[in-house]
Amino acid sequence: MSAWFALAWQSRLKRRSASFAAVALVVLLCVFASTRLAQAQTAKPGAAAAVTCATCHAGVSASYAHAPMRHALENPGANPVLDTHPKLTVQMGAYTYTVQTKDGQSTYTVSDGTDSMTLPIRWDFGQQSQTWVLEKDGNLYEGLVSYFHRDQALATTPGDGRITPHNLTEAMGRKLNAWEVNQCFNCHATNALDGVRLKLNTLTPGLDCERCHVGVEQHMADAIHDNFTTLPKKLKTMDAEDAANFCGQCHRTWDTVVRNGWKGVVDVRFQPYRLENSKCFTGNDRRISCLTCHDPHQPVNHNDAVYDSKCLACHGGGKASKVATAAAPPTAKACPVAKANCVSCHMQKVELPGGHAVFTDHMIRIVKAGEPYPD
Ligand code: HEC
Ligand code: HEC
Ligand code: HEC
Ligand code: HEC
Ligand code: HEC
Ligand code: HEC
Ligand code: HEC
Question: 175: Cβ below 6 Å to ligand 5?
């Protein structure tokens, strides 16, 4: 049991009528396990070496293969963005940047008109918009220019706008300290860290199943031996606060944002923080959990209408809802204005400064024309 889960579990038991939840869970687990184990045993996997998560969880694995989180980091040669944009250039002040891709190899060049520096691109961060982490003389740098999906072009990397380079190396990128490097790879890759040691040569780029399903090694060993002794933790049973903290490991928790004093429009990227600030949020109510609106194995759904039922589970306007729990009233007020496409008015789209992208404000509210961004 991971320390995180142990803590979450303890605090949940404290917050809830413990015995019922625990008994119900054990009963459920047993019923599930016995029926599904029987299914798994009838469909025995072939050679042990070929067994992967997909052998038994085909549906989840197939949909997750296309989710952006799977591709949060890529190696060269597996980068559709650079393959379809084989030559990108931009002029920034006195420097010219060129990102060139040929035969699956990409290079990043910066030139001041007299001298130039070319480095191979080894780490592509981001599936749509991309930032490249470059290596020079044993140090890692965040490229000073990034690729932006919306503009299909290069521009200054978000957060680096204040830097005025004095030489080619400074123009090439911002030198990352060891702590930053660890954080970068830990959020965008799997098995990046061994304690505090970065494992650049053996990490798996992107978020693999075990990045979230921590401790599935025993489950895999069981699968190979066709003898299930334990099952991975059920992440589905997290309440709204536990889910916000779990996803917040990378999307940033409420605590992290407050502790760092991140203010202003940039905090629209931190969905757990924004969501927890809205009047709709109650920590022990699953109807306002990240998992109610998002399947982490799928790309985000852009159809406003699919979220209506999630809002109406609480905003039934007096009608007791089927999924209502004792934790929150099923009868939060109904909207006096509209009956559908709730998020189009109450979850505002906000342009991220310097990000060349729009984010969705998870602080659900009545948006008033001309009001300043509430943080
Ligand atoms: C040989 C088949 C097999 C393989 C391989 C396998 N699993 Fe499972 N897994 C099962 C069975 C059977 C269950 C229990 C029944 C269920 O709930 O689906 C299960 C349960 C789970 C659960 C809990 C689901 C729940 O009910 O909440 C997770 C998470 C999970 N597996 C993830 C993985 C991951 C990640 C991998 C790869 C590292 C993997 N599994 C490999 C058969 C397998
Ligand atoms: C605490 C976890 C965390 C750290 C550390 C982190 N990222 Fe991210 N990164 C995220 C999350 C979550 C997203 C998706 C939401 C967003 O854009 O903020 C993201 C998005 C991105 C994107 C945009 C992807 C897209 O498709 O638009 C890029 C590029 C990126 N990160 C690069 C980096 C680089 C380079 C570093 C290190 C210098 C880094 N990140 C550090 C969590 C992290
Ligand atoms: C280990 C770090 C990590 C964790 C944990 C994590 N995410 Fe992410 N997430 C990312 C990164 C990095 C990206 C940006 C991927 C990209 O575009 O390159 C991302 C992107 C996303 C997106 C945008 C997908 C799209 O189609 O644009 C959604 C939605 C999302 N995450 C939801 C979740 C939810 C829900 C959870 C909790 C169950 C979660 N994430 C947990 C790192 C993480
Ligand atoms: C970003 C984190 C994240 C990643 C990566 C991830 N999962 Fe999950 N998974 C979750 C969460 C959270 C749940 C519980 C919520 C839910 O069921 O929607 C879950 C539920 C499951 C379940 C329970 C059955 C179900 O559909 O609810 C299975 C099985 C599973 N995951 C397998 C996998 C496999 C296999 C992979 C890799 C192909 C994977 N997961 C990658 C977070 C993740
Ligand atoms: C009540 C529903 C709801 C809940 C709860 C919710 N989201 Fe979202 N989320 C949305 C909607 C709607 C979008 C925008 C979809 C689109 O692109 O049109 C979105 C978009 C996102 C994106 C893509 C980037 C962006 O800002 O547009 C990420 C990442 C994300 N959510 C993460 C989370 C995380 C993490 C949680 C839990 C703290 C969470 N969401 C809870 C409804 C929800
Ligand atoms: C877990 C239950 C729950 C869910 C799910 C939920 N809300 Fe709420 N919401 C509340 C509660 C409780 C309040 C505060 C009391 C009230 O106004 O009835 C509230 C308040 C509001 C307000 C008024 C806020 C203000 O600034 O005065 C709006 C608007 C709103 N919700 C819209 C939504 C929308 C849109 C969704 C779906 C994206 C949603 N809610 C999902 C429970 C919920
Ligand atoms: C066309 C934009 C629009 C859409 C779509 C919309 N709303 Fe509203 N909503 C508003 C406005 C504007 C107000 C403020 C009305 C006022 O103060 O007179 C409001 C008010 C509310 C309130 C506060 C009610 C109160 O008495 O305090 C809630 C809750 C709410 N909406 C929920 C929802 C839900 C749930 C949906 C989807 C079923 C939804 N809204 C769809 C614009 C919209």
Answer: no
The Cα 273–Cα 348 span in angstroms is 15
In contact, 316 and 329? CB cutoff 8 Å: no
Q: Exposed, middle or buried, 352 (CB in 10 Å: 0-12/13-18/19+)?
A: middle
Ligand 4 centroid distance, CA of 277 (Å): 26
Q: Which ligand is nearest to the CA of 40?
A: 1
Token pair of 167 as six digits: 């030489």
Q: Which amino acid is located at 364 in the chain? A: I
Tell the residue nearest (CA) to atom 7 of ligand 6: 280
| Structure tokens given for 197 | 């040691």
155 contacts: CB under 8 Å, gap ≥ 6: 90, 145, 146, 148, 356
User: With contact defined as beta carbons under 8 Å apart, do 284 and 302 qualify?
Assistant: no
Residuewise pLDDT in 10s, the chain (375 residues): 333 333 333 333 323 333 323 323 333 333 334 334 434 433 444 444 578 999 999 999 999 999 999 999 998 778 889 999 999 999 999 999 999 999 889 999 999 999 999 999 999 999 999 999 999 999 999 999 999 999 999 999 999 999 999 999 999 999 999 999 999 999 999 999 998 899 999 999 999 999 999 989 889 888 888 888 878 888 999 999 999 999 999 999 999 999 999 999 999 999 999 999 999 999 999 999 999 999 999 999 999 999 999 999 999 865 544 444 555 455 799 999 999 999 999 999 999 999 999 999 999 999 999 999 998
Going from the Cα of 359 to the center of ligand 6, the distance in angstroms, rounded, reads 20
Quote the strand ranges of 19-104, DSSP E: 73-74, 87-92, 95-102
Per-domain boundaries in the chain: 3-70+211-235, 73-198, 238-360
Which run of H or E residues covers position 223?
Answer: helix 217-224
Query: For residue 294, how far is its CA from the centre of ligand 5 (angstroms)?
Result: 7
Report d(CA 249, CA 270) in Å as an integer: 11
- pTM score > 0.85 for this model? yes
